[in-house]
Write a structure and sequence with these properties.
Layout lengths: L3 H12 L5 E3 L6 H14 L1 E6 L7 H12 L2 E6 L2 E5 L14
Parallel strand pairs: 1-2
Antiparallel strand pairs: 2-4, 3-4
């Protein structure tokens, strides 16, 4: 769980990011959850885009994914959301939270 101050810091970092993964009409599958876990391990902070043909909204998808992969929802606005999860990789330059 991250604090409000940490969330604000991560939001600032996330503004400069481009969406790395898109979620479409098929929604979430087991393969997409595995891909999201790998993305979070590789980057720690990841921005996602929900396509217009998806039935779910970004906020509900962000919450579901965060629960499944044990991550934190940083921000969910419109069709875009940002997730954070500290990587367990060794030799990885982690994001230093305040």
């Amino acid at each position: 769980m991250i604090t409000t101050k940490q969330r604000a810091f991560l939001r600032g970092l996330g503004n400069a990011l481009e969406p790395v993964m898109q979620i479409g009409k098929d929604g979430l599958s087991d393969n997409s959850i595995k891909a999201i876990e790998q993305l979070l391990q590789a980057r720690e902070l990841v921005k996602f885009k929900v396509l217009n043909n998806c039935d779910d909204d970004a906020k509900s998808l962000a919450n579901v994914i965060a629960i499944k992969v044990n991550a934190d929802v940083v921000q969910a606005i419109g069709k875009v959301f940002i997730l954070y999860k500290k990587s367990t990789k060794k030799g990885f330059k982690h994001i230093e939270l305040p």
